[in-house]
Specification:
Length: about 300
Amino acid sequence: MILWLPILLFIDHLTGDFIPNKNDYDAYGSKTAFNDHFLVQVQNDKNPSTFLLHFAPYENIEESLECFIYFPNLTNHYVHSVGVGRRQTQTERHFFFVGESVNDQVGAFIGLVKYNGTEKESLPCSLNLSYHLQYLHSSHYQKHYILGVDPRGLIAYGFSNEFVLIFEAQSTDTLESWNGNLTWPDASFVPHAVDISEKFGVIAGFIYRANSTNQQYDPVIYLINFNSSGHPIVVDEYKPVATPGTWQALLTNSDANTYSAKYDMSASINENGDVLVGMQFINRVFLFAVNITNPINLTY
Ligand SMILES: *[C@@H]1O[C@H](CO)[C@@H](O)[C@H](O)[C@H]1NC(C)=O
Ligand SMILES: *[C@@H]1O[C@H](CO)[C@@H](O)[C@H](O)[C@H]1NC(C)=O
Ligand SMILES: *[C@@H]1O[C@H](CO)[C@@H](O)[C@H](O)[C@H]1NC(C)=O
Ligand SMILES: *[C@@H]1O[C@H](CO)[C@@H](O)[C@H](O)[C@H]1NC(C)=O
Ligand SMILES: *[C@@H]1O[C@H](CO)[C@@H](O)[C@H](O)[C@H]1NC(C)=O
Ligand SMILES: *[C@@H]1O[C@H](CO)[C@@H](O)[C@H](O)[C@H]1NC(C)=O
Ligand SMILES: *[C@@H]1O[C@H](CO)[C@@H](O)[C@H](O)[C@H]1NC(C)=O
């Protein structure tokens, strides 16, 4: 058995299989999402991955308002993130998720679960559920594959360095995807966090910079709009620059190409167009203002 180990590691290295670290619950993305009506939480320690659905109210947690959703097609799949529209109505009880298959070549996926029972209907909700799943078979292992959901919960966007995709709640049989380099101004951009509002979105991540003496990853924040075909397009950017002489200025983040919790980021937009972006590796939260009637500038 000991002889096999280096060989397996070698093969793994060659194929770039995704072997998630399931001991860290929060790794690779947002495992919980909620709005005023329900909360969803993914449990990747189960195989198939399972979702816990919990209906409001959230005070005095009642188990009768809770159920587990077993999605058989998610055997040997790992869910990076779950997402809901923050302004879905009480009768729109559906959620999105993105992830990758583990140890095989099915690729990246995006999915949707809809619950159409009434609230008073008896749980567990194994009935009244419909499942939708689309694969991007051509994708390789994505260290960072994030999910953005529009406030009404109609459209979900999948973002990675390699691809960008659009998946709609009303037409789950189709998946629109294209190469990431058509959207990212810098083809090395690796997205770490996103939020989508009615009119615009904000995505934070890293871009790669190399010269003859060193290589490093620099943080960048993109403002996105949507063109008439609904595709996200980058219209402005902000690159945090550390003050010379501070510990932040000495960072090269040269290991930011592999997943590490310290490089997790956050993005959040409110209804006035105020934007918060959090970057814990530099101990910073950035506040921007975006004009919601003309969202073309990310004003620091
Ligand atoms: C939910 O499932 C139950 C049991 O199959 C069924 O009686 C009920 O009509 C369903 N509700 C909806 C909204 O489909
Ligand atoms: C609810 O979903 C189930 C399963 O997909 C479906 O059979 C049923 O027609 C749906 N009911 C309503 C009211 O949409
Ligand atoms: C789940 O897998 C089965 C068998 O491969 C397939 O027929 C079905 O369409 C899949 N369901 C979804 C929602 O992808
Ligand atoms: C984008 O990536 C694809 C696939 O890697 C490549 O074929 C294409 O030349 C790239 N386009 C640009 C503009 O870099
Ligand atoms: C390479 O980048 C480092 C850090 O940004 C910089 O200090 C150095 O001068 C650069 N070297 C060259 C040859 O451009
Ligand atoms: C929207 O942007 C995409 C690139 O992501 C481009 O292919 C498409 O042509 C654009 N549509 C319009 C109407 O400009
Ligand atoms: C926002 O944009 C609109 C349209 O361009 C403009 O009329 C308005 O003055 C802007 N608001 C602010 C606070 O800059």
